[in-house]
Amino acid sequence: MDKFDNIWQHSMIEHVFEDGTVKFQGEASIKVDVIIHCTGYQYHIPFLKTKGLVVVEENRVVPTYGHVFLPQLAPRLSFVGLFNMGMTFLPAELQSKWISQALSGNVLLPSEKEMMHDVEQVYKQMEERGIPKTCTHSLNHKMDYMDWLSDQLKITRPPQKLKDFYARFIERFHNDHEGFREAFEDNLLIEDGM
Question: Which top-rank group of organisms is this from (predicted)?
């Protein structure tokens, strides 16, 4: 049995060294290039030491510009997939591209002040519309988010047909959690004339 067989299931990191060595609770350690923390749907990030720059308030990761960048540490600290509902594959891909382009200097982010202002405006609009903090990272019916990300990357926006597909998928999911896949596939075939 490999000494890392159980680590992958319960990877409690004890310490990360500057040379890339990760020591897990217990005796095992391994040298890595990248650490990806997958926190699930309830955001809990005690491993992220930012001296209070980023916190979780009612499942809202505060502050995040475009659901991705922490303005004070951008582009060095970023998040991919802070979605608590919705179709996430294309938005996560676009977010990943945005991060890589920002890190490489091919895409310039607004200033920290501009990003913070944008974040504050988003939160203010949500409050005025009665949207709870817990829905901050919900992409349900936010098809314009994919357009916004595409604009940040200066690439062609996703086709309307794809955004319509996402919207129908999300609507059907909300209406029938258990049988939405079968109903969705049947109706999709009919709507597409197949």
Answer: Eukaryota
